[in-house]
Amino acid sequence: MVQYLNNNNSGFAAWNANRNATKKRGGFLWWFIIFMAAWWAIGVMFGKHTTTEPVVESQMAVVDVSNVPVYGVASDKITAEVQGLRIFDINLLDFKANSKSADTVKLLSGDNAYAEIGVAGIGTTAPAADTVWSENGDTYTWRNSDGITFNRTITINDYVITVNDEIKNDSGKDFSFAPYARMQRENDTVSSAGVYTGLVVYANNDIEHDDWRAIAKKPRAYTTTNGFAGFADQYWETIVDIDAPDQTIRAQKYGDLYQADTNARAVNVAAGATANIKTMLYAGPRDSSVLKNVAPIINGIDKTIDYGWFWFLAMPMLWLINAINSIVMNYGIAIIIMTILLRLLMWPLTRKSYTSMATMQKMQPEMQRIQKLYANDKQRMQIELMKLYQTHKTSPMSGCLPMLIQIPIFFALYKALLISVQMRNAHFLWISDLAVMDPYFILPILMGASMWLQQYLQSGANKSADKNDVAAQTQRAMRWMPIIFTVMFAWMPAGLVLYWTVSNLFGIAQMYIIKRKMK
Prior knowledge:
Blueprint: H1 2-5, H2 11-19, H3 28-46, E1 71-74, E2 78-83, E3 86-96, E4 104-107, E5 114-122, E6 134-136, E7 139-143, E8 148-157, E9 160-169, E10 175-185, E11 198-203, E12 206-211, H4 212-217, E13 220-224, E14 227-232, E15 236-242, E16 247-254, E17 257-263, E18 267-269, E19 274-285, H5 288-294, H6 311-328, H7 331-345, H8 347-362, H9 364-373, H10 378-392, H11 401-419, H12 442-459, H13 470-478, H14 481-489, H15 494-518
Antiparallel strand pairs: 1-2, 2-3, 3-4, 3-5, 5-10, 6-7, 7-8, 8-9, 9-19, 10-17, 10-18, 11-12, 11-14, 13-16, 14-15, 15-19, 16-17
């Protein structure tokens, strides 16, 4: 659409000039404002609205666990530290912290960051955070003064840590135990740009999101038959899920720490009976294929990835990029191939747009004659112009459609690149990470240059000096767009800039081919 409006010979420019030849501002700004307003309205209408209940804030208890021994658990995917009820320092063995480091990604690492999984005894005592357990192989045991034995086993399957608590009641009395799990950590807004991070809750078969600022401003509470709670970063998430009904999930901020906890309905353990309570902790990548495999264990976890408003485009595009990469083994090349495939798919539409614009240019002498003939009768001028469009079977807006279609593709790809953990640290030529900005600004400059060349070849130069010529004024203003876009794209993911650059180059080649055929 921008490229079409840049053409002072276009029918849209003439129509706009004839509508109000005395105005000095073009219509592009109004189209942009209308588009942004519609975009905002769609987000308001179709975005998720979280219903919450107020939570009474209480001070987070500080427990001294220095006397509790630390044990390590490991699998081929992750390693973690276990200290009594707490699990922390989770290393993702398949992911490096960055492209220049040999260290792995760490989750729930640092001061006061951990997941705590336990039970609260009703009428009796239960293991607390500072309880020292007896270790016997993979089993941790503790017995209270009432004769109730707690046996805990911890197993790991890929990125899921499963905690199984066996409660054996030899006290001669009935007791109840309420399962709970809580997670606390600091926020991480620095490593995320343009993508949602913060609280993730699955309640009543629906995913609820709240960012860090929203939690700090107002605590959250949910009641559900089953669900989970946790925190999401740009590429990683940590989720706790109790395999028990009737849960209350809460989230709030204490000082610099954020806490999410879930409490399930109490389990009655009769005298002489044994009960088992299972809790799962997922700590791994926000990868759709990985989460899909975890979904049978933690119901709803595959819905935690936020693909944005254009999810119906982002999901297949991400799948296509990954599929192409599995063949060419380079995400930069995969983005180039995907861009070409998309442009080939839109070839008929783009060809029709270019043909329509060429027809508009041929109509210019007749349009100028109508403009002069009915200069003092705007309504008649509009009627005659519409008759001219119908005669030539074209429309002043026909050149806008290809650009309008690219807008949702642009936003969908932007979201897909930001949330794709595979794109993280993906190399291409001089770029070490396609998910972040080009450190040398080479791609944004190439993108701006290709955008300028495409505009120039499509519209040419307008030398009109008429101050009332809206088309000329619009074109002069649009000449700044390559510079504006270059600055905007300079800080966008390099993979997205690569897509836009290749798309521009393809458009230039396509324009050349179509013009040759038309001649």
